[in-house]
Specification:
- With 364 residues, this protein is an alpha+beta fold.
- It has 15 helices and 7 strands.
- A 7-stranded antiparallel beta sheet has the order 6-5-4-1-3-2-7.
- It starts with a strand and ends with a helix.
């Protein structure tokens, strides 16, 4: 296995601002940080988890920032932020994670001119461009090492786990590093961490966070909506497991497997009911918020509650948030209820709003 390096270099010597920002992020995520002292104007950060963490740090600090990664020694990657905005993205092997288009490949070839002013020596610019354009290195950590040398970045080559394990050969002033971690202590922190865990499909952990957010703030509409979404995901997961079990055993279904299948189906139903309750609670707390109406309509559709589904679509349209998709969905609901004239009108509106909406033409 090759090297797995990840570091974030921030152009600031304001240690208090960096620590305050990272403590807030740590409370709203599962991420921990090792933070070094400022060297030549740059502060180094080693995160325990990636998950696009620089997308949070960059806007929060709004300073020049490099997020550097070496992925299993196969690819060197960097992201460069300035003023809180992502200005440049580079990956030495563009198709490493997924096959991408020619346009996307060009966008990941690097535009070092946007941070040329940060080079310690202006004559290094041509060397930097040549480095980024060079064919694949046998070990991409070599490209990273050359990159940080040209940029004058210290304490950049390494990773959180390596440092925690005592591997710090290239690290200066280790005795001045601090470790930052934190547990959520507000409803907002729990809700935000729950969103991240849900995105990672850690559904039970996410549900636990949303439960804590609601416990701390029983009027937190967003937490109810998010918990409903997590319960819906749990329902989908249980339903897939039940269907997979039926396909696997087919006519050889045993009593034990039948009971297991029944449990999966019950879990799916229970989670759907819980999701419906959470979306309804979110609506009670924020009657003018569109998202939980759309989420509740989706649950009601699976439960064949067409009249309830229609009421939710009507409310979304009343709130002025209708789209071609909403009109098309309401048209399908009206068709199920036998209101063909109403359905036709909604399909017409969907086509008017989006002349490329093939499904609406087909439904009409």
């Amino acid at each position: 296995m090759g090297a797995w390096f990840e570091s974030i270099l921030i152009k600031t010597e304001d240690a208090e601002m960096v620590e305050r920002t990272l403590r807030g992020i740590a409370k709203a995520s599962d991420c921990k940080f090792l933070v070094g002292p400022a060297l030549d104007g740059w502060t180094s950060i080693f995160p325990s988890e990636s998950h696009e963490i620089s997308d949070e740090i960059g806007p929060a600090l709004a300073v020049d920032l490099f997020h550097l990664l070496v992925h299993d020694d196969d690819a060197f990657i960097y992201y460069f932020y300035r003023g809180g905005r992502l200005m440049d993205h580079y990956i030495s092997w563009p198709d490493y994670f997924d096959e991408i288009s020619e346009r996307e490949t060009l966008e990941t070839r690097g535009k070092p001119e946007v941070f040329r002013d940060l080079l310690p020596q202006s004559e290094s610019f041509s060397k930097l461009k040549a480095l980024l354009a060079e064919e694949k290195f046998v070990f991409e950590n070599e490209r990273m090492s050359r990159f940080v040398d040209l940029m004058g970045l210290k304490n950049a080559v390494g990773g959180y786990k390596y440092l925690q394990a005592g591997e710090m050969d290239d690290i200066e002033e280790w005795d001045k590093f601090i470790h930052i971690e934190g547990q959520p202590d507000t409803a907002e922190h729990f809700n935000k961490r729950g969103e991240k865990r849900h995105a990672l499909n850690r559904l039970d952990d996410a549900l636990g966070d949303f439960d804590e957010a609601i416990k701390l703030n029983p009027s937190f509409a967003a937490a109810y909506n998010n918990r409903g979404l997590a319960k819906k995901s749990k329902s989908d997961e249980a339903q897939k497991l039940a269907e997979a079990l039926v396909r696997a055993v087919k006519v050889n279904l045993t009593f034990a497997e039948a009971y297991k299948n029944r449990d999966f189906a019950k879990e799916s139903k229970d989670n759907l009911s819980g999701a419906l309750e959470d979306f309804s609670r979110a609506i009670e707390l924020r009657p003018d918020w569109v998202e939980p109406y759309a989420n509740r309509a989706g649950i009601r559709k699976t439960q064949d509650d067409s009249r309830g589904e229609l009421a939710d679509y009507n409310r979304i349209i009343q709130l002025g948030a209708a789209s071609a998709t909403i009109y098309n969905s309401r048209g399908e609901t009206k068709r199920k209820l036998g209101d063909l004239a109403g359905a036709l009108g909604d399909y017409e509106k969907a086509v008017e709003l989006d002349p490329t909406f093939a499904a609406a033409y087909n439904n009409r």
